[in-house]
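User: Just a sanity check before I run the rest of the batch. Below are the structure tokens for the first item. I only need the designed sequence back.
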């Protein structure tokens, strides 16, 4: 074939599919390592408390400091992601947070560990805000919920690996070794991300999509976007609850339920396995059902997310009030399945309700909001309530934000549907 011979459409589509699949694969693996690194600390926490002599409120700061830095840096990451090659932000961010994870294992004081957790937040901010916008430019609207669900499958699997690997390494060797092991995969994946394809912004949104937008004009438009803010409110309430729950549940099961006191790392393995199964099935189901319901009506996937959270709330309450251990773990599994249903639909709704030129910043602003009012404060608040009352009481009341989050997402679905003609024009 000479230079003047056009490429067959089927060949071009196949090439695009391979490029998109490679980028999605790399981004998903990075997201898996992202959550693995986050949750190693949850199962290592009892040993860290022993070594540094810190109480529950201080321990909660290890989660809060990471989230504060991550959320504050995310809008900047989004701003840059709308203006420079996004693969550079992804690669640089992954390498930075992986180095900081390894450095966590070298910490010889509580202050040093806090500093390492803060640097992890900076690295993750360079990646978290731009990855969904890359995926939205690789796949058309009718496939985005499903493809984003594949990406978010890494959350339960990575979290489970963090619980499992962190628990095993902490029990077998030390919490230092757990952090060392967690930092290695990200260095490899960060290098691979430099060679990831960079899709054109708005490539899958039609010729009328806004791919260039002055920042202040985009900011004003986002401020008037009620669907975006309702989705963000629901996401924030959910994040508050599950962020604190994920941080404290292994410690609760050991301390107050007295499970495997001689082998506390086993709690991480069991809790991680439940998270992996429930999260994986919930995320896949949410992606498939979300795409199906979105084709029936705009905002259908969001409606699914809202119902899922409202059903998850009583399961979360039961999980800490059922006396039988098997029933407790069953309630945890059902609650996680219902929560993870929304991973694809809620993030697809965010990227679909804003113009392509402003997606990375919108995701970054969403990250700021859901963490500033969500899991940036919940680990410390739960720790404070636990110090004043009990960890059981602190965790039980976390069902309320999930219920309210479900109601907010149902409102978001209504607003999204009302704004759908505008949304479709990008």
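Assistant: Here's the designed sequence for the first item:
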């Amino acid at each position: 074939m000479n230079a003047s011979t056009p490429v067959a459409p089927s060949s071009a589509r196949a090439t695009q599919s391979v490029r998109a699949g490679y980028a999605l694969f790399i981004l998903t693996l990075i997201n898996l390592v992202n959550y693995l690194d986050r949750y190693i600390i949850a199962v290592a926490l009892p040993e860290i408390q022993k070594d540094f002599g810190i109480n529950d409120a201080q321990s909660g700061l290890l989660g809060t400091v990471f989230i504060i830095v991550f959320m504050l840096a995310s809008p900047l990451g989004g701003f840059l992601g709308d203006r420079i090659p996004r693969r550079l932000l992804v690669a640089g961010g992954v390498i930075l947070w992986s180095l900081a994870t390894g450095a966590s294992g070298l910490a010889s004081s509580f202050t040093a560990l806090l500093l390492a957790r803060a640097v992890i937040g900076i690295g993750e901010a360079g990646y978290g805000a731009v990855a969904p916008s890359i995926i939205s430019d690789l796949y058309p609207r009718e496939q985005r919920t499903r493809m984003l669900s594949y990406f978010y499958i890494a959350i339960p699997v990575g979290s489970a690996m963090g619980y499992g690997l962190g628990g095993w390494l902490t029990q077998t060797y030390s919490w230092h070794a757990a952090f060392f092991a967690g930092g290695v995969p990200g260095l490899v994946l960060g290098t691979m991300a430099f060679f990831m394809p960079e899709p054109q912004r708005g490539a899958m949104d039609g010729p009328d999509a806004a791919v260039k937008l002055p920042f202040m004009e985009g900011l004003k438009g986002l401020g008037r976007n009620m669907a975006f803010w309702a989705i963000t409110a629901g996401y924030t309430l959910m994040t508050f609850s599950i962020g604190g729950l994920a941080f404290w549940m292994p410690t609760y099961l050991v301390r107050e339920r007295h499970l495997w006191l001689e082998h506390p790392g086993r709690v991480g393995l069991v809790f991680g396995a439940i998270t992996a199964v429930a999260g994986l099935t919930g995320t896949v189901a949410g992606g498939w059902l979300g795409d199906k319901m979105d084709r029936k009506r705009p905002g259908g996937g969001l409606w699914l997310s809202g119902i899922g959270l409202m059903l998850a709330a009583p399961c979360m309450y039961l999980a800490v009030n059922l006396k039988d251990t098997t029933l407790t773990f069953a309630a945890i599994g059902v609650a996680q399945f219902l929560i993870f249903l929304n991973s694809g639909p809620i993030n697809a709704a965010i990227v679909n309700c804003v113009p392509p030129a402003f997606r990375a910043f919108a995701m970054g602003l969403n990250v700021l909001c859901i963490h500033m009012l969500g899991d940036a404060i919940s680990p410390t608040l739960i720790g404070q309530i636990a110090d004043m009352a009990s960890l059981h009481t602190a965790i039980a009341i976390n069902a309320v934000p999930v219920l309210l989050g479900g109601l907010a997402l149902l409102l978001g679905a209504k607003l999204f549907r009302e704004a759908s003609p505008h949304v479709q024009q990008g």
